[in-house]
């Protein structure tokens, strides 16, 4: 017996959307064509949730030899602009994807208008001039039918005349809407005469003031998919209840057209939600506008450009999305998963360097004054092809303040009087003491080096328990280092925000201020990095040895270096939670 297409695709390890696509292909649907689209509204910058949708939409097209187009869903001129259009394009390309065509829902305004006029003529749409409150009050509930609008049976001619007026500018915003005449008793609330056109007088960033009547999402999306030839229209789960309406409008727009079985189908997957993270462009815009962050690309923002500036790579974001997968259930993903993806990726690509972010002076008292040595540091032990670079050694070094302790516990393997420690890539030194100021704070640490223990020399493999990093004071460059923590104090900021707003009656911004982590940014000036970093460019990735992964910030210029901490070397939060 031959296998059914279900059986064939079930054998592969595919996500459920891939299974649907493979089954369609095996059954010869859409003439073997796969066409998807990524449909952002240009009302803000893309965030990590969009990355999940992008990986799906573009990934399906790539995998099945199809095409994914970029379609800007620009049906709300009051919130949209060209800055967002450009930023969205940049972010998609940075993530590693390329669209086929660039489309705009506004390209179809004429077609959609003509279709609406056709519906009016067929008695399938009417102009309602009730207030939004009246319309809402008539909707009914899922178990009780709605009340028909008193304008439901308005004559066609009158509807046509008023629809033209909606678009001519002579009517006020909100004074009238066009509604599809479907079924006020339908158990699907979206069928209860949905609004399909409204008046917006703000000029549009592409069509200027040509249109005043704008189609609403449900009336634009499916039809745009149909006009473009989309086969698989993939979106997130909140659109499940919209699907019957999507299908109905596609049925209506196809009616009488000889286009065989070619029609788009909508499929839904679960949205990405991350703990300690607030998504949604509306909320992110509020943060930017209120100055609670420095901009859309603040490295604490969950935007693609924020992650980029923070030092995330496209590969790490794609790896993360791939690992969390696509399901039919909403979940709250752990940020630690995303951090482990970037750690794993940067481990392979980041050059190891020395940087001291809480400096104290270490004097190698038996090393000749004025002498310098050029030593060598391996760029990346994970990648032999990465080579090495020069580092300078001298008598006075910067080390981390916490790498010295005067009275150290037993297992402290760093500098403490009498103990041997290796200075990474240089010598073993014996700590001899320190100098303190009047308050008892350590000002300088002293040690003696053992010349025959130079790294790479025959006697260098003498055992020591600790290795610390350092930079030569005479050669070091001063730098500003920005350390980041989670932007939100609460694990599920989305739910907490809605609780504070809906139950406690707070304004959105006040609620946000209550939830924000005031310690999410720590700026350290007077850090020191090795001279190798003099020519670093924004977005270069480094591992500051023993500290974490860092990325050169866009504010960095020769003479004023600035680095962002991408992520620590270990998951410190998991450790803290276990304690
Ligand atoms: P936001 O509320 O953040 O503005 P949106 O859904 O309104 O999100 P759009 O620009 O309309 O944003 O969405 C473009 C695509 O991205 C849609 O297909 C949408 O379903 C998807 N998307 C948005 N947020 C997420 C998310 N958190 N996880 C996965 N996909 C998402
Ligand atoms: Mg939106």
* Ligand set: adenosine-5'-triphosphate, magnesium ion
Rg measurement, Å? 31 Å
Biggest β-sheet, characterized?
7 strands, mixed
Number of helices: 16
Q: What is the oligomeric state here?
A: single chain
Gross morphology: elongated
The amount of helix comes to 25-40%
Strand order of the largest sheet: 10-23-24-25-21-22-11
Number of strands: 25
Strand content: 15-25%
The unreliable regions are 575-579
Give the structural class: alpha/beta
**What's the N-to-C terminus distance?**
59 Å
Give the rounded overall mean pLDDT. 95
How would you describe the overall organization of this protein?
- With 579 residues, the protein is an alpha/beta fold.
- Helices cover 29% and strands 22% of the residues.
- The strands form six sheets. Strands 10-23-24-25-21-22-11 form a seven-stranded mixed sheet, covered by helices on one side. A seven-stranded mixed sheet has the order 19-16-17-18-12-15-20, with no helix packed on it. A four-stranded antiparallel sheet has the order 4-5-6-7.
- Helix 3 crosses helix 12.
- The C terminus is likely disordered.
- Bound molecules: adenosine-5'-triphosphate and magnesium ion.
- Adenosine-5'-triphosphate binds next to helix 3 and strand 8.
Question: Secondary-structure map with pairings?
Answer:
Blueprint: H1 5-10, H2 16-26, E1 35-38, H3 48-63, E2 67-72, H4 82-95, E3 102-104, H5 109-121, E4 125-128, H6 132-137, H7 156-168, E5 177-180, E6 195-199, E7 213-215, H8 217-228, E8 232-236, H9 243-254, E9 265-269, H10 281-289, H11 304-310, H12 314-324, H13 335-349, E10 351-353, E11 355-356, E12 359-364, E13 372-378, E14 388-394, E15 396-400, E16 420-423, E17 428-436, E18 442-449, E19 467-468, E20 471-472, E21 477-484, H14 493-502, H15 508-515, E22 521-529, E23 541-544, E24 548-552, E25 561-568, H16 572-578
Parallel strand pairs: 1-2, 2-3, 8-9, 10-23, 12-18, 16-19, 21-25
Antiparallel strand pairs: 4-5, 5-6, 6-7, 11-22, 12-15, 13-14, 15-20, 16-17, 17-18, 21-22, 23-24, 24-25
Helix pairs in contact: 3-12, 8-9, 12-13, 14-15
């Amino acid at each position: 017996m031959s296998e059914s297409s279900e059986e064939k695709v079930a054998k592969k390890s595919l996500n459920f959307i891939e299974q649907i696509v493979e089954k369609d292909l095996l059954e010869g649907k859409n003439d073997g064509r796969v066409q998807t689209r990524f449909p952002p509204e240009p009302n803000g910058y893309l965030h990590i949730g969009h990355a999940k949708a992008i990986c799906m939409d573009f990934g399906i097209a790539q995998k099945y030899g199809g095409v994914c187009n970029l379609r800007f869903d620009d049906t709300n001129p009051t919130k949209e602009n060209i800055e967002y259009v450009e930023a969205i394009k940049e972010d998609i390309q940075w993530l590693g994807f390329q669209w086929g065509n660039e489309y705009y829902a506004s390209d179809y305004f004429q077609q959609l208008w003509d279709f609406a006029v056709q519906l009016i003529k067929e008695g399938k749409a009417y102009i309602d001039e009730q207030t939004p409150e009246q319309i809402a009050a008539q909707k009914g509930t899922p178990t009780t039918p709605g009340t028909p609008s008193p304008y439901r049976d308005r004559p066609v001619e009158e509807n046509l005349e008023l629809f033209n007026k909606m678009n001519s500018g002579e009517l006020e915003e909100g004074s009238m809407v066009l509604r599809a005449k479907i079924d006020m008793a339908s158990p699907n609330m979206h069928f209860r005469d949905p609004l399909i056109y409204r008046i917006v007088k703000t000029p549009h960033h592409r069509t200027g003031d040509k249109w005043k009547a704008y189609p609403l999402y449900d009336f634009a999306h499916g039809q745009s998919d149909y006009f473009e030839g989309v086969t698989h229209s993939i979106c997130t789960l909140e659109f499940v209840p919209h699907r019957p309406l999507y299908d109905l409008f596609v049925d209506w727009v196809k009616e009488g057209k000889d286009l065989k079985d070619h029609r788009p189908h909508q499929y839904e997957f679960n949205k990405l939600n991350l703990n300690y993270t607030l998504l949604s462009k509306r909320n992110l815009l509020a943060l930017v506008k209120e100055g609670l962050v420095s901009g859309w690309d603040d490295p604490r923002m969950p935007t693609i450009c924020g992650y980029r500036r923070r030092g995330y790579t496209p590969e790490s974001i794609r790896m993360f999305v791939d690992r969390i997968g696509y399901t039919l259930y909403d979940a709250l993903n752990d940020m630690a998963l995303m951090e482990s993806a970037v750690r794993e990726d940067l481990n392979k690509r980041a050059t190891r360097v020395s940087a001291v972010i809480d400096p104290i002076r270490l004097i190698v008292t038996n090393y000749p004054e004025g002498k310098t040595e050029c030593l060598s540091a391996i760029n990346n032990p994970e990648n032999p092809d990465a080579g090495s670079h020069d580092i300078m050694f001298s008598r006075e070094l910067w080390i981390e303040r916490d790498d010295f302790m005067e009275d150290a516990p037993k297992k402290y393997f760093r500098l403490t009087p009498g103990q041997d420690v290796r200075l990474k890539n240089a010598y073993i030194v014996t700590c001899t003491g320190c100098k303190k100021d009047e308050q008892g704070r350590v000002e300088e640490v002293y040690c003696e080096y053992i010349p025959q223990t130079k790294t790479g020399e025959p006697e260098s493999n003498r055992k020591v328990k600790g290795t610390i990093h350092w930079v030569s004071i005479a050669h070091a460059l001063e730098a500003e280092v920005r350390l980041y923590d989670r932007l939100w104090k609460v694990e599920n900021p989305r739910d907490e925000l809605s609780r504070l707003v809906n139950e406690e009656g707070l304004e959105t911004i006040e609620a946000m201020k209550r939830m924000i982590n005031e310690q999410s940014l720590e700026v350290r000036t007077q850090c020191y990095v090795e001279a190798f970093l003099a020519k670093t460019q924004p977005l270069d990735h480094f591992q500051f040895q023993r500290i974490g992964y860092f990325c050169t910030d866009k504010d960095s210029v020769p003479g004023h270096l600035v680095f962002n901490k991408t992520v620590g070397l270990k998951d410190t939060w998991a450790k803290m939670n276990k304690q």
